[in-house]
Write a structure and sequence with these properties.
Distance between the termini: 39 Å
CATH superfamily: Ribonuclease H-like superfamily/Ribonuclease H
CATH class: Alpha Beta
Order of helices and strands: EEEHHEHEHHH
Mean pLDDT: 95
Low-confidence stretches: none
Number of helices: 6
Number of strands: 5
Helix content: 25-40%
CATH topology: Nucleotidyltransferase, domain 5
Strand content: 15-25%
Shape: globular
CATH architecture: 2-Layer Sandwich
Radius of gyration: 16 Å
Strand order of the largest sheet: 3-2-1-4-5
């Protein structure tokens, strides 16, 4: 049955703040190695779930060593990682009927869409997404503290503890906290 886009109330969708870490930034060559998510209730912003999903890279030989270092990937910590399809199915178990939110969300969405297609899976989340980068740019432009509107600039501005940078769950948590602060402006 086709979606009736005229009658969608996007404000009723629960939100899933998410972040992905990759083996590099070339979508046709690199892959997701970690997904972090924070699922919150629409309206109340109550946290419903938090999850970190480590995914075994299938083409580690194609990985950019700098990207692996930034994301903290190492074989010992990823010993219990799951196959891509299993990790994506777990992610989808949290996103059914939700709207995704990310920081510079387009990159994560492109990698996520490619990974879903490669595994023969379909998205179950709302086709639109929210972006804290765009929201920060709109609300904070002109302030001298901001050059790139990165999480590393926004978190200290709002006195938010970032946890471990470039770790998917900590970045998803930071994105959630930044979003709440931006919505208060």
């Amino acid at each position: 049955m086709p979606i009736d886009f005229k009658n969608i109330d996007a404000s009723k969708y629960d939100l899933v703040f998410f972040d992905c870490e990759f083996t590099g930034l070339e979508i046709l060559k690199h892959e997701i190695v970690e997904i972090g998510l924070v699922k919150v209730k629409a309206g109340t912003m109550e946290v419903l779930a938090k999850r970190r999903i480590k995914i075994k890279p299938q083409k580690l030989e194609n990985a950019n060593p700098e990207s692996l270092a930034i994301s903290g990937y190492n074989e010992e910590e990823w010993a219990d990682a799951v196959e891509s399809k299993t990790g994506l199915e777990e992610f989808l178990s949290y996103t059914d009927g939700c709207m995704l939110v990310g920081h510079n969300v387009a990159v994560d969405r492109m990698f996520l869409q490619k990974a879903l297609e490669d595994c023969g899976l379909e998205p179950n989340f709302f086709y639109k997404a929210l972006d804290t980068f765009s929201l920060a740019w709109a609300k904070l432009q002109g302030k001298s503290e901001f050059k790139s509107f990165s999480l590393s600039e926004l978190a200290p501005y709002f006195s938010i503890d970032e946890g471990a940078k470039h770790r998917a769950l900590d970045d998803a948590k930071t994105t959630y906290q930044v979003f709440k602060k931006l919505m208060e402006l």
